[in-house]
What we know:
Helix 3 (62-71) links the parallel strand 3 and strand 4 (80-84). The chain is an alpha/beta fold and 121 residues long. The chain has helices at 13-25, 39-46, 62-71, 89-94, 107-119; strands at residues 5-9, 29-32, 50-54, 80-84, 99-102. It has one domain (5-17, 27-119): Rossmann fold, CATH 3.40.50. It has a 5-stranded parallel β-sheet with strand order 2-1-3-4-5, sandwiched between helices.
Amino acid sequence: MAKSKVLLAEDDSTMVSLLKTLLKLEGFDVVALSADADVPAAVRHEKPDVLLLDVHLLHQSGLSILESLRSSEDTSNVRVVMSSGANVRDECMTRGANGFLMKPYMPEDLIKMLKQAIKSA
C-alpha cells in the first residue's frame, strides 16, 4: 500500500525536524516546505494526502493560505490540519480546516488527527 503523503508548512526548523522524524517513523511520506514557500503551488505540485499548516508562518498567514486553497477549484478538496500556539480552532474550522491542534500537542494526537483527515477524504 502506498504511503500517505504529508506536506509540512511550518516555519520553526526544530519543529520541522521533529515532525519529519515522527511522521516518517509512523510510515508517512513527508515533504517539508521552506518558511516562505508558495504553499498553494506546493500543494498542486506534491498532491499531498494532508497538509499540516501552521497558522502563523514567517511572512504568511496560514488562514490566508487556507482561504486560497479552499477558493481554488484544483486545491479546494485538499485535507488541511492547522496548528497554532494560540487557540484559534474555531476560526480555522470556520474557514475550512479539517482539523486543528493547539501547540504543544502530543505526537499521538497529531498522528490520530492526520489519519482521520486522510480517512475523511
